[in-house]
Amino acid sequence: MRGSWTRPVAIYSAALALFLATEFTLFRNPFYRTLLEPESYAGEVELLLAAQRNFAHAPAGTVLVLGDSRIREGFSAKIADESGGDALLRFVNGAISGSTPRSWYYILRELDPQATRYGVIVLPADDYRDEDGVWSWADYPIDLPTVTACLRLDDAFGFAASFHGLDERFHALRGALLKGFVYKDDVQAFLADPRSRLARVENYRNHSAAWNYEYPGRSESLAGLTVDWSRRTIHFPAGVEEARRNDLAAAILRETTPQFGDKYRYRKYWLERILDRYRSKDTRVVFARVPRLPVQRPEPDLHLPSAIRELAAANSHCVLLDEDVLSGLEKPEYFFDSLHLNARGRALLSQDLAARIRKALAR
Predict the structure, then answer these.
(1) How far out from the chain centre does Cα 309 lie?
(2) Is residue 357 within a helix (H) or strand (E), and if so which, with residue range?
(3) At 34, is the pLDDT very low, low, confident or very high (cuts 50, 70, 90)?
(4) Whole-number pLDDT of residue 295
């Protein structure tokens, strides 16, 4: 009888030991991070970290611009560098597609462990007002795959607790403790064609920084798009495919949802954690409102809070840029879809943001 249950226990114990050994020798080994798919969320973070490890520019002159795909498409470090006519500042586009203030906190901790690397850190926002949207920022699913490599064991419970839903908390905790659950698809893709993955990784590590710096932006334009707000209809220019029309309609004509202050609490918590890392340092943290849509929507008649304004007022090392300056870029001719600036918009945003940062630092 004894053997009837001891054998399954031994098998399960061996399987668990193998799983844990793989977890701690492979997925928590910095070497595996260098093999991640370069175009994945985690792969983008690793490429940024690798590029910045080789970046030896003086901290006082380095401006790191964080953000999601809006900044990745809409901000050019090259144009910003060249717009000043001097070498006093050097700009870095640190945007990661789909990233949020929660993921910025963990990415910054990896990029800047001593909080002394950058002279300026720019935190973009599509609005300074905290309007709850159609989805919960706290339960945003992309944060886990984005920052898995940055999470330490002692982060697991705090990271999971920052999610609201029980399922989201469970998956966040499991992924933070056992990274193999997050990396399993990446591992399968690697094992299916390791030679191709290794070649892609080497190519991206050698060239992606230059590609990003030289990237001119997209040439497409939504010029000709108009909105009839009384009828809630959109006239699309010729050539805009149905999928993009649907995205535009959803973004432009969306209804205002009931407000519970979730976005305010989320922003207040994570942006304050970022500010706290630089409170006693020389780094200035800049909040910048960036263009959000190819048209300006009528603002809902709501008295909304603003975590960004509160934090800027309470922190002397923080700079709040005028949110209305860039509203002139919220025009169809500067966008190629519902969220992203095209090449013309990219050039204008880069020049303007660089000029306003230089002016703010001069003051």
Answers:
(1) 21
(2) helix 343-362
(3) confident
(4) 94
Task: Tell me what the mean pLDDT of segment 76-105 comes to.
Answer: 91
Q: How far is CA 214 from CA 55, 211, 233, 310, in A?
A: 17, 5, 38, 37
How much is the pLDDT for 58?
Answer: 52
Residue keyed to tokens 């985690």? 42
Distance (Å, whole) CA 356 – CA 22: 49
What is the mean pLDDT of the segment spanning 355-362? 88
343/81 Cα distance (integer angstroms): 17
First and final C-alpha spacing in the chain: 82
Q: What is the pLDDT of residue 3?
A: 56
Separation CA 264–CA 136 (nearest Å): 11
H-type alpha helices, 215-342: 242-252, 262-277, 307-314
**What is the C-alpha separation between 117 and 272, in angstroms, rounded?**
19
Buried-exposed string 44-70: b where 16+ CB fall within 10 A, e elsewhere: bbbbbbebbeeeeeeeeebbbbbbbeb
Can you give the pLDDT at residue 9?
57
